[in-house]
Amino acid sequence: MKELIGSPGTVSGLILRITQCGFAAASIAVMVSASNFSTYTAFCYLIASMGLQLLWSFGLACLDVYALRRKRDLHNPVLVSLFVVGDCNVITGSCMFICWGYSPVCKRPELLQRSRSSTLQAI
């Protein structure tokens, strides 16, 4: 398998994962430092999503350290597929919560109440 920049088990991959951990931790710190962050559901979901990103990136960084110390090759097609699926799931979840946080329903909860009552009346 061709060795690419940032692929698992390389120094560049380790740097990438450590950087992802740093940005996830920074985003959690910024959101938690906001006043009354827990009253906004979008912040709570984003913090959970960034926590998942932090754990996923830290786990893969540990795997990169292990591979570099033991000089193991992580270019197994099954492992690379697992990394890609995991990264896609984490990114999709993060983007979903970011988009949900900017929705008009999240900013104006009365819209959610109206839509629920109109849906119930339609039934």
UniProtKB/TrEMBL annotation:
It is a multi-pass membrane protein. The chain crosses the membrane at residues 12-34, 40-66, 78-103. It comes from the Eukaryota. Keywords: Cell membrane, Membrane, Transmembrane, Transmembrane helix. One of its GO terms (cellular component) is plasma membrane. The keyword Plastid does not apply. The keyword Transmembrane applies. It is found in: Cell membrane. Residues 7-88 form the Casparian strip membrane protein domain. Belongs to the Casparian strip membrane proteins (CASP) family. Homodimer and heterodimers. PANTHER family: CASP-LIKE PROTEIN 5B2 (PTHR32021:SF0), CASP-LIKE PROTEIN 5B3 (PTHR32021). This is CASP-like protein. It comes from Corchorus olitorius.
